[in-house]
Amino acid sequence: MLTWPHGDSDWASILPEAEDVFVRIAREVTRRESLIVACRDEDHEIHVCGQLAQSQVDMGRVTTALAPGNDTWARDHGPLTILENGVPVMLDFTFNGWGGKYPAEADNRITACLHDQGVFGERALRPVDFVLEGGAIESDGLGTLLTTHGCLMTPSRNPGLDTRAVESVLRRELGAQRVLWLKHGHLEGDDTDGHVDTLARLCDPDTIAHVVCEDPEDPHHGPLLAMTRELAALRTPQGHPYRLVPLPLPAPIHNEEGQRLPATHANFLIINGAVLVPTYNDPADEVALEALAGVFPDREIIGIDCRALIRQFGSLHCVTMQIPSLPPLPGPSLPTPE
Prior knowledge:
single chain; alpha/beta; L-arginine/glycine Amidinotransferase, Chain A; 3-stranded parallel β-sheet; 3-stranded mixed β-sheet; 10 helices; 23% strand
């Protein structure tokens, strides 16, 4: 799922560059799976479809729908999917603009709007009265959640709830059997209060890829080193340490105002048969791509230049949300074709 950028937003000054990135993501996704695109209105939908078709995107795999939004961060306003008795159920958590930092009323309605139009098929949608962004949690799919204390415990998200109460919600709604909390690690320019998808990612039940900073003069060095030590102390449900895969932090990237931007290779997206990895025209790009190739040997590793996205303080994983496919309908057993 993508929520396409438009001119009536903070993307206005760099809209062509941002749309180029979205087109590249759409092209790689539709080579392997279907794509849902949320557009703000009919004119925007016509524009988006024209861009995609002109770029040789397989339009047979694209579904567009109208859902006016404030911004484009589908990871945080899109639905989170769980399995109940093997059937996907979509959860519509509350999105309040990362603790009230930005307008988000329209974004908060996007998931329900898309569901009402049938673009998610037969998947059930359940609203959840709890503020939670998809970028704030990582799951191994087997009951373990990884998150950051700085984000989930920010009072402007769910005031009055302590750690135990937050964990209770995660267990009840997401089926979490245990929650691993990180108290260290933060990227300058990040306005999410430390989304874990910019810092550390569960690649499989035993492996965590995480951001490191090797320059002792960089202000990220100490906090990320402390995060690495936290990760090294974590254990799998079987009691084993996780395999840690370091991803080097790119050299500092600043905007026109001199503010450092939160560029990170940890913001990758896993799709069918491939991993899309944000790159920043930096020597660290190749190091990260090679490291992730070792983590995902059965998937193609594809770098996508995300320097335009990072100018709005997010990256590739932040603008996307995966929607698991429905299981096949029960029916008569058919012979396998020769």
